[in-house]
User: What shape does this take?
Amino acid sequence: MEEKQGVKIGMPIIGGLIAAILGGIVWAAIAAMTEYEVGLIAILIGALTGYAVVLFSNKQIATVHKIIAVLFALVGILLGKYLTVVYFTSELFGDVSVMELVFDSEMISAFAETFQEYFSQPIDLLFIVLAIVSAWQIPGRMARTSLATDASSSDHAPRA
Assistant: This one.
């Protein structure tokens, strides 16, 4: 899992996972505070996962890293939706804490059964597409920037 044709993917996977978890938690926290889901957070999750994958790959980017960023952006969005549903469900019932519901098998099953409903609005799909685009583009842009910086610094290096 660590290396595929000289491309390291283990650490970028860890970075993408961390970014997805943080992004999902931020999504749910904002939804809990505002009592409204802010779709722009999906784009930020995409950007965050893209950035994390670049950071954890030491800016050695291949197509597989972009795919990792996109997959974890989707995981982050899904986690954000799930945690939002868990929060509002705990508010609805009052006597159940969020932490009790997060790992509750019935809650997970209910979310899985009604999964489509949480992504059925066209605006949801738009923000998901924009998150995918940002997760895909950021690694490529950051890699090009780092290559340009490396090339320009090597041009000005003193020669022996």
About this structure: The longest strand covers residues 3-4. Residues 122-155 form the longest helix (34 residues).
